[in-house]
Amino acid sequence: MTMSDDPFAQAAQHTGAKTSGIEALQLPSDLQVAACMRDWLSRTTRADRADPDPSAAPALDTRLFAKLIAARDARNELALLGLQAHEWRALLARHFAGYFGHATMPALPQAISPSEHASFMRALHSLLIANASTAVHVDDARCLATIIVHACLRPDHLWRDLGLAGRDEVTWMLTRYFPALVALNVENLRWKKFLAAQCALSLGLPPGPAPGCPGCEDYGYCFASRT
């Protein structure tokens, strides 16, 4: 097998992710979101360095966060990320220095955290962090865990709730940040269903849907016994 000249494909081979998942980290098809992601990428920390290497892991992580943020920022929904103000500022300092500390830095509205789902949110966040890769920045893993947890509160497939391109992209993201959990998905379950099941098992409970699952168009398919 030959090594691709595409730096994103090389990263895919190194992480074990599908190349299509890396390619999906390019600009979204939605023009509004794509423009927003492009703007975020113009503020990246690596852009200020003398010799930025696009094949380096930090560049991939920055592209991931740019896409996650743009999906919400384009629609004035930054609160849906679930991040606290100090986490937001630190995330911008790590990846988007062109915004950090500037008057144009996007304000982060107060995170929306429904109290009725507090136990689920704490448990899933703890589960993700307990399985975080040592190859990624611990604070990036914490931020991503928070974003994923809040996405599980919304009524659609996880990739849509995150603003990503599809399952392959979610698989790449989870493989990079939480590989031990990915290895447990031997039944190839949909990611939101799988994460909810693992969360329940961590609490000694039978597997069940995530809080957002009942509103999904495929709820009857994923949880036929409950409909």
UniProtKB/TrEMBL annotation:
InterPro entries named in the record: NifQ
Pfam families with a match to the protein in the record: NifQ
GO molecular function, one term: molybdenum ion binding
One BP annotation, GO: nitrogen fixation
Protein's UniProt name: Nitrogen fixation protein NifQ
Naturally occurring in which organism (per UniProt): Paraburkholderia susongensis
Lineage: Bacteria, Pseudomonadati, Pseudomonadota, Betaproteobacteria, Burkholderiales
